[in-house]
């Protein structure tokens, strides 16, 4: 697992310390969190999809096997002909590759290149403004902390300004979907995940199952192995 995370950092370039820390959480920690929730679907305790397959070969630009939110709950069997592969990039990648953002999303202009990883160095007003988070997502409830930031600024908020890095991973998921790198998630689905969280404080991948910020992030990571 540590080797895979190192590869992610190399591909994505310079990544914020908070992002690296969260991306380096072990599989066991994630599984314990799901297990502690005590949520059971069809008599099977929820666990993470099989993460060793991430970054594995095959099919989708070297990406890993990935599933839709509902498919993520149904088990971690792989190797079937209908398996799909995701080649999504991490928040760190998108924070360092503003020139590769897909239209209509704009990274904006950095006004202080010496402090490129500083939120304040990226304009969110005027002609140099990047796409605003609130123009893609609802920010009237639990997601209100992102309301006044651009998508790029949300990527750069770090652990203090972006608990669990939910905003950063949602932005990355949106850009990945727009690029066509995550066949299991469309832009509309990514927006729905966050908007439901904004309204309720959690997202339900299926009736009766609640994913809180850290759970949503754990799922989104399975779609961005590169």
Short description:
With 226 residues, this protein is mainly alpha-helical. The protein contains 10 helices and 6 strands, in the order H-H-H-E-E-E-H-E-H-H-H-H-H-E-E-H.
Structure description:
With 226 residues, this protein is mainly alpha-helical. The chain has one domain. Helices cover 38% and strands 8% of the residues. It is built from ten helices and six strands. It has helices at residues 2-12, 17-23, 27-37, 69-73, 91-96, 151-155, 158-161, 166-179, 187-200, 213-221; strands at residues 40-41, 44-45, 64-66, 84-86, 203-206, 209-211. The protein has a two-stranded antiparallel ribbon. Strands 3-4 form a two-stranded antiparallel ribbon. Strands 5-6 form a two-stranded antiparallel ribbon. A hairpin with a 2-residue loop joins strand 5 (203-206) and strand 6. Helix 8 (166-179) runs antiparallel to helix 9 (187-200) and helix 8 packs parallel to helix 10 (213-221). The longest helix is centred in the last third of the chain and has 14 residues, at 166-179. The chain starts with a helix and ends in a 5-residue tail after the last helix. The model is unreliable at 1-28 and 34-61 (pLDDT under 50).
């Amino acid at each position: 697992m540590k080797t895979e995370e190192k590869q992610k950092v190399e591909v994505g370039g310079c990544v914020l310390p908070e992002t690296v820390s969260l991306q380096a959480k072990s599989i066991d920690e994630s599984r314990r969190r799901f297990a502690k929730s005590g949520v059971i679907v069809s008599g099977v305790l929820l666990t993470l999809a099989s993460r060793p397959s991430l970054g594995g070969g095959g099919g989708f630009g070297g990406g890993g096997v990935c599933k839709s939110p509902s498919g993520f709950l149904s088990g971690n069997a792989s190797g079937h002909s209908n398996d799909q592969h995701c080649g999504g990039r991490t928040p760190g990648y998108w924070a360092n590759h503003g020139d590769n953002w897909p239209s209509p999303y704009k990274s904006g202009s950095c006004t202080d290149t010496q402090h490129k990883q500083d939120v304040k160095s990226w304009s969110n007003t005027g002609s140099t403004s990047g796409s605003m988070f609130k123009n893609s997502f609802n920010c009237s409830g639990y997601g209100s902390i992102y309301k006044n930031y651009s998508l790029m600024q949300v990527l750069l908020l770090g652990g203090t300004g972006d608990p669990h890095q939910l905003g950063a991973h949602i932005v990355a998921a949106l850009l990945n979907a727009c690029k066509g790198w995550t066949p299991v998630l469309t832009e509309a689905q990514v927006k729905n995940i966050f908007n439901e969280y904004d309204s309720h404080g959690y997202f339900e991948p299926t009736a009766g199952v609640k994913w809180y910020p850290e759970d949503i992030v754990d799922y989104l990571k399975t779609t961005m192995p590169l």
